[in-house]
Amino acid sequence: MSGFKVRLSNSSSWLRHANHSIEEEAIIYDDLLQDVYENPRWYLDNLEYLCEFRVRWANYRQVRSVVPYKYVQKPKAL
Questions:
Q1: What is the pLDDT, as a whole number, of residue 7?
Q2: Cα–Cα distance between 18 and 56 in angstroms, integer?
Q3: Where are the domains of the chain?
């Protein structure tokens, strides 16, 4: 059996509102992508029961798909 459990707050779909650090968010997102890749049939069969979550490095107004945090260009320190 596949599946993935993520702790969310009751009022928000943002992982940061459930007190996850950005590193924890990146791990959750990477692990979930790997699980979806390995078990696509399970996710397609259970799509209507799965909840959504958001990560802090994605600008959801401008992007269509979210890339993993390790591929995000971070601003250079001054």
A1: 77
A2: 12
A3: 15-67
Token pair of 63 as six digits = 């992007």
Condensed to tens digits (0 to 9), the pLDDT of residues 16-62 reads 998 899 999 999 999 999 999 999 999 999 999 888 889 999 888 88
Q: CB-hemisphere CA count at 13 Å for 12?
A: 11
**9 confidence band (pLDDT: 50, 70, 90):** confident
Phi-psi region of 74 (alpha: psi -120 to 50; beta: other; left: phi over 0): beta
Instruction: Please report, in angstroms and rounded to a whole number, the separation of the first and last CA atoms in the chain.
Output: 48
**Cβ atoms within 10 A of the Cβ of 7, count?**
11
Torsion angles phi and psi, residue 54, rounded to 5: -120, 150
